[in-house]
Specification:
The structure holds 3 protein chains of 3 kinds.
Chain A (H helix, E strand, L loop, with lengths): L1 H31 L6 H20 L1 H22 L9 H22 L16 E5 L2 E4 H23 L1 H8 L4 H6 L4 H23 L9 H16 L4 H29 L2 H26 L10
Chain B lengths: L2 E12 L2 E12 L3 E5 L6 H9 L6 E6 L2 E2 L5 H6 L2 E4 L11 H12 L14 H13 L15 H14 L4 E5 L7 H14 L4 E5 L3 H7 L2 E6 L2 E6 L1 H6 L1 H8 L5
Parallel strand pairs in B: 3-8, 3-9, 6-7, 7-8
Antiparallel strand pairs in B: 1-2, 1-4, 4-5, 9-10
Helix pairs in contact in B: 3-4, 3-5, 4-5
Chain C lengths: L4 H19 L6 H27 L7 H20 L12 H23 L4 H21 L9 E2 L5 E2 L2 E2 L3 H24 L1 H11 L1 H7 L3 H27 L1 E2 L6 H14 L6 H19 L4 H14 L3 H7 L5
Antiparallel strand pairs in C: 1-4, 2-3
The chains are: A mainly alpha, B alpha/beta, C mainly alpha.
């Protein structure tokens, strides 16, 4: 029971982290029609910037703004130099170009920082445990991550539902002419949205730093999971990204915790271990496959 | 007299909009039946339901004594329901001949033939060239579609529809965007088909409609206002009020 | 004009590929032959992917799965034979003429199942679902500790080919080149056949094809299976070349690599993917020999190709004639 509760919280924390990444990715796809495989690289940039500042300059609290700034700057540069040229191109060119970007970012970090994983220390303030219920301690840091995730989700909802920027975002790519007829600088809007997505990715990266090790390739792993999230949710839909993130985050966490255990009820020995481990790691892909077979455009198809 | 196509209470809504409102139309075999109506009357939705791209909410569609309401578009096509599109839908990177050859190929059964070159297959080329000649495009056979003029593409649409030897042709504004000469040529071609194949003609060009149609249905706000002979439609005051908008000559 | 630029390029490529074993002694011997063999094998996989991307407009982002499966079939059959442990009542085999067709069969069956589900979607959803299925297969093999899991599985020796050993670099090169020639020949015929017309028509205008009476799903699925089988054969050859298989062979980086080759070489052109595979591997090898951080140069190279040469090298060769 206690384990289940802990796993549920872990699942929630993963879900909220995934949502930070999925929100940016789904906006960029929904508004600009670009598949950005390099979104995971922005996450990695955030994590590395955070880890480096934390260890070299000192302090988690300096690392967070540094990570946000680094991811946003890299994101805006990426939009201005590369992504901008991809708006009018087919998916194939987009996949190829952003695949090239991933290679570049992995290479540049290996060159500048090295291939060894970095560790990032938790801030002392958040390094303890909170007793959620008697006999149920839970790491304060993970709770803080969840809180940030919730705040960002609410903030995004507010921006999109209530502000002029949100109205423009909701108008979406198919009403590009209308938006530009309103006298809005479309190019500037796109850069802004892309930068915002990069910022969120960087935030996710730096927050995950103290939980997992910071290493090359971290972006790709999380990127594929994030794509699963937005595809399940319906590409272009923030609500879909949120529901998708919850579904995938929970399935992944609970699958890893319980799939091997459940299999052991029927099977025994190394076979159960092997199958259980496989099942745990493919759970989210199974969910996605089932979701797409049933609803080929995701749970919340954007744009009608 | 046998009916080629019967629409029986066909109804389709998009949200609050009733695009097809209990449509009942019977089209006799080898007749040319025109459907006219102002923009937004639901003509495109009707065509979509006949060809299978849109599923009706209610009602049945019968094609030569078979209920085709639940059939897919390809199945309807193979049963003899050919069509042309309002906005040309052709394989733009194929030659004119290849576009028509595809229609012949579809008619001749499945295409799970892997090794023999389709280009040198006289069983495809022959009928395809014949269809191109019929619409006057034989000289452009080798030209890629994206190099054809708008009028030529419309002719090619018709050639592809003819090459599939349909029992019924659904023509969605075949004259749209054509110059007067091209329109005349198109009317001529369609005239030559009269009495040989059932035609459902949706068209804004009233000269063409009155020149070709045996019967006319007037569609307004998704519902059939009237179905009658051309002369009766021309004289019908309700039609004038709803659609033609001009006093009787 | 008796010879088009394409024909000349094709003849040149063929001449180069045939010349490799003879020229190899001047260029580092077996190393050059091995590199050329890698090019040839990867070209089989890339060209099979072009059948989907180029001819079918089906952007599959999981093509490495079929490549990896083919490789694992060879490795597993050899593993069971070497360790004297029957698998499902079969002793395993080391005979190419048995295990290579088996590799194609298994890859084909996987492609049939995955394709049948994936082809219900389209566009970006298709890209992502093919990726997801490939990742599933990848993680299954990562978790299969019995066959080495993450660390992969080594083969004791190369397969026998009709009972003959093919350990020497040249004979294996000839076999691989023969396989490439066969695959290209099949594709060449396929593309202009009725089947190819239906597949390309569906890529060009799906609505038109449906209105003519084509059920495009079936044609696409068959193309998916054929491409999967060819990738499986490439995987089987690759397992033999390296005498080693690992889950990385089916990872998404590998799938992305195949896509890069197809586009770099030129989509919808029989020889484009061959040129793409050669360019990719040669540039990668050259860069890797020059600096450990070859990705820093290679990434932007890929990016530039995507931005400025979307029709690939073959498109540049062809010029603007077909624009």
């Amino acid at each position: 029971m206690q384990l289940l509760f802990e796993q549920l919280l872990n699942g929630l924390q993963l879900s909220l982290t995934l949502f930070l990444l999925a929100a940016g990715l789904t906006l960029v796809f929904g508004i600009m029609g670009v598949i950005n495989l390099a979104h995971g690289s922005l996450y990695m940039v955030g994590a590395y910037a955070g880890a480096l500042v934390a260890s070299k300059v000192g302090g988690f609290w300096l690392a967070v703004p540094a990570a946000l700034a680094a991811a946003a700057v890299v994101g805006v540069a990426m939009e201005l130099l590369v992504v901008r040229r991809l708006y009018a191109r087919d998916h194939l060119s987009q996949v190829l170009a952003t695949f090239g970007l991933i290679l570049f970012f992995n290479g540049i970090i290996a060159w500048g920082v090295g291939r060894a994983p970095l560790q990032m220390d938790m801030p002392t303030l958040l390094s303890g445990f909170v007793e959620l219920a008697p006999g149920l301690p839970y790491p304060t840091y993970r709770l803080a991550v969840m809180a940030v995730g919730v705040v960002v989700a609410l903030g995004l909802w507010y921006v999109i539902a209530r502000t002029r920027l949100g109205m423009l975002i909701r108008a979406g790519s198919d009403k590009r002419e209308m938006v530009s007829a309103l006298g809005v600088d479309i190019a500037g809007l796109f850069t802004l949205v892309f930068g915002l997505g990069a910022l969120l990715a960087g935030l996710a990266g730096v927050m995950v730093g103290p939980i997992r090790s910071v290493q090359i390739g971290m972006g790709e792993q999380v990127l594929i999971t994030t794509f699963v999230v937005i595809v399940v949710g319906g590409i272009g839909s923030i609500r879909g990204a949120f529901v998708g993130a919850l579904l995938i985050g929970m399935c992944d966490t609970l699958g890893r915790a319980y799939a091997p255990m459940l299999l052991k009820l029927w099977l025994s020995g190394p076979l159960a271990d092997g199958l259980g481990a496989s099942l745990a790691s493919i759970m989210i892909y199974l969910v996605m496959a089932v979701a797409l077979v049933l609803r080929p455009r995701g749970l919340f198809p954007a744009g009608g | 007299m046998s009916a080629a196509l019967i629409l029986d209470g066909v109804t389709k809504s998009f949200g609050a909009l009733r695009a097809s409102d209990n449509v009942n139309i019977a089209i006799e075999a080898n007749h040319c039946h025109a459907v006219i109506g102002p923009n937004g009357a639901g003509k495109s939705t009707l065509i979509g339901q006949i060809t299978g791209e849109i599923r009706p909410d209610a009602g049945r569609i019968r094609f030569f004594d078979q209920d085709i309401t639940d059939w897919t578009t390809p199945r309807r096509a193979l049963a003899g329901l050919g069509r042309s599109f309002q906005i040309t839908q052709l394989c733009a990177d194929f030659s004119a001949l290849d576009n028509v050859a595809l229609a012949v190929q579809a008619r001749q059964g499945h295409s799970y033939r892997f090794l023999r070159a389709a280009h040198s297959d006289e069983r495809l080329r022959g009928p395809a060239m014949a269809a191109l000649e019929r619409v006057g495009l034989a000289e452009r056979a080798g030209t890629r579609v994206d190099a054809l003029s708008h009028g030529e593409r419309r002719q090619l649409e018709l050639a592809a529809a003819l090459a599939s030897e349909p029992r019924m042709l659904v023509l969605d504004e075949p004259m749209a965007g054509m110059g007067p000469q091209e329109s005349e040529r198109m009317i001529e071609i369609l005239q030559s088909l009269r009495g040989k194949v059932t035609i459902l003609l949706v068209e804004h060009d009233m000269d063409a409609v009155f020149a070709l149609a045996d019967r006319i249905s007037v569609l307004v706000n998704g519902a059939v206002l009237t179905t009658a002979d051309p002369a009766a439609v021309r004289a019908d005051p309700a039609v004038r009020a709803a659609y033609l908008g001009a006093p009787a000559p | 004009m008796p010879f088009s630029r394409q024909t000349i390029a094709g003849l040149l490529i063929a001449a180069c590929l045939i010349a490799v074993p003879y020229a190899a002694p001047l260029m580092g011997g077996n190393y050059a032959i091995t590199l050329a063999t890698r090019v040839v094998i990867v070209a089989i996989a890339a060209s099979s992917l072009d059948l989907l991307i180029g001819r079918g407009a089906l952007v599959s982002f999981g093509h490495a799965a079929y490549f990896g499966l083919g490789a694992y079939v060879v490795a597993i059959a050899s593993f069971h034979l070497a360790n004297d442990i029957p698998i499902l009542g079969w002793a395993g085999s080391n005979e190419a003429l048995v295990v290579w067709p088996l590799a194609m069969l298994i890859s084909g069956v996987a492609a049939l199942i995955i394709g049948a589900l994936s082809l219900r979607t389209s566009g970006v959803y298709f890209i992502m679902i093919t990726l997801a299925f490939a990742q599933m297969i990848y993680f299954v093999f990562v978790a299969l500790k019995y066959y080495g899991g993450d660390d992969g599985l080594a083969l004791n020796s190369r397969n026998l080919f009709a009972g003959e050993r093919i350990t020497d670099a040249r004979s294996f090169y000839w076999i691989s080149l023969g396989a490439l020639a066969l695959c290209l020949f099949i594709q060449w015929r396929l593309v202009v056949s009725r089947f190819g017309m239906a597949l390309r028509g569906a890529a060009s205008n799906e609505r038109r094809m449906a209105a003519l009476g084509f059920s495009v799903y079936g044609y696409r699925l068959v193309a998916f299976v054929i491409a999967g089988m060819m990738a499986g054969l490439a995987g089987a050859l690759s397992a033999n070349l390296n005498r080693f298989v690992s889950p990385d062979m089916m990872g998404w980086v590998r799938s992305g690599g195949f896509m890069v080759m197809v586009i770099m070489g030129g989509v919808s052109s029989l020889l484009g993917p061959v040129i793409g595979a050669a360019t990719y591997l040669l540039v990668e090898t050259a860069l890797a020999g020059w600096t450990e951080h070859w990705e820093v140069v290679f990434g932007p190279f890929v990016l530039l190709v995507a931005l400025f040469a979307p029709r690939g090298i073959w498109g540049l060769l062809r010029g603007r004639a077909c624009e």
